[in-house]
Amino acid sequence: MTDRTVDRLNGITPSALDLIGNTPLIALDRLWKGPGRLLAKCEFLNPTGSLKDRSSLFMITKARESGKLNDGDPVIEVTSGNQGGGIACVTAVLGHPFTVAMSKGNSPQRAIMMKALGANCILTDQVNGKPGNVTADDVAAAEEAAMKVKDEIGAYYVDQFNNQTNWLAHYEMTGPEIWRQTAGKIDAFLIGCGTGGCFVGTSKFLKEKNSNIKCFVVEPEGCQPIEGCTITKPLHLLQGSGYGCVPTLFKPELYDGTMAVSDEDAVKYRKLLGQKEGLYCGYTTGANIAAAIKLLQSGKLPKDAVVVTILCDSGLKYPE
Ligand SMILES: Cc1ncc(COP(=O)(O)O)c(C=O)c1O
């Protein structure tokens, strides 16, 4: 028996990578008393406090398995913070130097965490957003900075927006976990889209199990490109999602509709989650809950419907 097998038998976790995924599914019965039930995946319990740890694990380990990334090779990525934090965790454990570019409009807490995990952080000035409101142009500026450094240091570019192993993480982990934890009793799933990885991977798995499950995207009010609307409000609080364009990874055949959420409702439900459920999460989580409740009230689902959404990240990642 290897030392690692003995460790596992003794209940010792071999590394932070083994803390990724298998998050609890919590019933928000105090926040939503019915009809129907609202359940949520506790993604803030991943090691760097967000759902993006899953895709970070997949994108790096699959690149290693395919030979695109070898032991000790440098890695580079563009992030709004959560993906960078996740990759910083994975590269720290696997021994890859990591450089990350991020717009200064994202919360400074995220840069502090990435640096603490050994990442070299390049912070770029905002183009047309403002602190807490990051636009597609702000992300493009961070991407440009990363591309300059990429060639200089010969780094492997993770490229979350185009990397197919991003959504695969949710197809192989998040979807199966939700299916198992609900024993297949789920009527609808919903989440916002950044890269679209979580929506696509989770929805694809769930619809393959039961094609009657409805999958909705949460979009910021006035910034609903997936719904096909003209963008009237590109600045919003839902950092990490709602970049104002349909993500490359998006698969329209999985999409049953958009639930639009205002900043005010995201703030309101983020607060209620803390006060009624004792859970401190970020703004997109508030938006997901607002959207889930709107859906439960909409009459679009059966009366006893079970709706599952995602508690995307920890509230500690945001300045108040
Ligand atoms: C904080 C945060 N990051 C990222 C995402 C998006 O994840 P993905 O890139 O898988 O679409 C979300 C979705 O709502 C989010 O809330």
Describe what you observe in this structure.
The protein is 38% helix and 16% strand. The chain has 320 residues and is of the alpha/beta class. It folds into 2 domains: 3-50 and 163-317, Rossmann fold (3-Layer(aba) Sandwich), CATH 3.40.50.1100; 52-157, Rossmann fold. Helix 3 (82-94) links the parallel strand 3 (75-79) and strand 4. The longest helix is centred in the middle third of the chain and has 18 residues, at 136-153. It is globular and about 55 Å long.
Descriptive keywords:
single chain, 10 strands, Rossmann fold, 320 residues, six-stranded mixed β-sheet, binds pyridoxal-5'-phosphate
Task: Characterize this entry briefly.
The chain folds into two domains: 3-50 and 163-317, Rossmann fold (3-Layer(aba) Sandwich), CATH 3.40.50; 52-157, Rossmann fold.
Strand order of the largest sheet: 1-2-10-7-8-9
CATH third-tier fold name of the largest domain: Rossmann fold
Q: Which CATH architecture of the largest domain is right?
A: 3-Layer(aba) Sandwich
Order of helical and strand elements: HEEHEHEHEHEHEHEEHHE
Q: State the secondary-structure class.
A: alpha/beta
Low-confidence runs of at least 5 consecutive residues: none
Report the top-level CATH class of the largest domain. Alpha Beta
